[in-house]
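tool=predict chain=A
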Amino acid sequence: MAGEPNERATLERVGLYMARGPLAGQRLSVQGDGLGGLELKRPFSDGTPHGLFEPENFIAPLAALVPRPRGHVLERIR
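tool=predict ok
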C-alpha cells in the first residue's frame, strides 16, 4: 500500500494524484469551426505546437480507457 492509515499526508497526496484528470484543461480549446484543439507539451519534430481534432475523433480514444461499471480494471495474467 502507498501509506499506512495514520499517514494522512501520504494518503492525501495519493488521493489527489488519483483524482486528477487525464488532460490539463488549460491545454484544451474549441475553435470557431467546431474543431477541438490540444496544445502539446512539446512540439512535434516538424515544429507543430498543437493538434486539431474532430470532437468524435478526440473523445473516442479517451472513452475507450474508461472501464465498464463494476468491472475489473486489471485482468489476470495467465
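The first strand starts at residue 28 and ends at 30. The chain is about 30% helix and 15% strand.
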